[in-house]
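Journal club side-thread
Mid-discussion, someone asked how the predicted structure for our own chain would compare to the paper's figures. Pasting it here so we can look after the session.
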Amino acid sequence: MSTIAQTIDRRLSQLPPSRAARLELLILRLLDFAEPEPTHNRAEPDEAKQRVEALAALNRIASRGGIAGIDDPVSWQRAQRTDRSLPGREP
């Protein structure tokens, strides 16, 4: 541990716990502001997973004949939404 870290630790240990906790949080925020930790790009794996899932869904639709396999799109849509009616679109 560096000398400054030891000094900070020693000074914080002399304070009441609630005050020490607030100061520790302040120190961490200042450190993050001064030199942020490198963030790992977590969006890419999630985005890649979403693309794979979307492609799989499209392949399932295509294997069933796709949209061309739906003879009457209006009745198909009504069948999909039998739990609720669409406002202004009642027969």
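Post-session note: The two ends are 76 Å apart (CA to CA).
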